[in-house]
Write a structure and sequence with these properties.
single chain, 2 helices, mainly alpha, about 70 residues
């Protein structure tokens, strides 16, 4: 069996022209991925642990992997 010599290309890859366009495309991709993610986006917070062991214990109790 011989492989074909040409590759079929469907559509064109749209290359962004400016940094602003890259930024807006990235924002759109982030929104789409947030809609698909089963875990809610957490509000910003700071967790201070006295020891690394305390942090590990806290981290294991979290169901949402976006927290760490």
């Amino acid at each position: 069996m011989e492989l074909p010599g040409k590759i079929k290309v469907v559509g064109r890859l749209r290359v962004p022209k400016t940094p602003e366009e890259c930024f807006w495309r990235g924002q759109r991709l982030q929104r789409q991925s947030d809609e698909l993610n089963p875990y809610p986006r957490p509000r910003g917070f700071v967790f201070k642990a006295k020891t690394y062991h305390d942090y590990e214990r806290w981290r294991r109790t979290q169901d949402n992997p976006r927290l760490w």
